[in-house]
């Protein structure tokens, strides 16, 4: 994930999903994120980060539970939530920062 900071410094919203393969709610979140991407297309980047494979990054961003969703734009954290989020809420959130 050496290009992580490069990705979150883009001029469009970047939704980062810190997840784990063994996490039930993370599996529920996955199709929701796909629908968000299908709805917003090129207006958003969705980045999935496996906390087990990227422990240093998860520690750096103080991820204590999964799923943790963080929205960035121009390198600034705009929003953060642990747990599930609905497609409607995510689309509205991202559109408000486009």
Automatic annotation (TrEMBL):
Disulfide bonds join 23-26. The active site is at 23 (nucleophile), 26 (nucleophile). One of its GO terms (molecular function) is protein-disulfide reductase activity. InterPro entries: Thioredoxin (IPR005746), Thioredoxin-like_sf (IPR036249), Thioredoxin_CS (IPR017937), Thioredoxin_domain (IPR013766). One of its GO terms (cellular component) is cytosol. Residues 1-98 form the Thioredoxin domain. The record marks 24-25 as: Contributes to redox potential value. NCBIfam families: thioredoxin. Belongs to the thioredoxin family. This is Thioredoxin. The lineage of its organism: Bacteria, Pseudomonadati, Bacteroidota, Flavobacteriia, Flavobacteriales.
């Amino acid at each position: 994930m050496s290009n992580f900071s490069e990705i979150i410094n883009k001029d469009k919203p970047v939704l980062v999903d810190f997840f784990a393969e063994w996490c039930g709610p993370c599996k529920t979140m996955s199709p929701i994120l796909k629908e968000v991407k299908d709805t917003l297309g090129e207006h958003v980047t969705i980045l999935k980060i496996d906390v087990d494979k990227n422990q240093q990054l998860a520690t750096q961003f103080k991820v204590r539970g999964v799923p943790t969703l963080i929205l960035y734009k121009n390198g600034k954290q705009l929003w953060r939530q642990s747990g599930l989020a609905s497609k409607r809420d995510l689309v509205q959130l991202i559109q408000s920062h486009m």
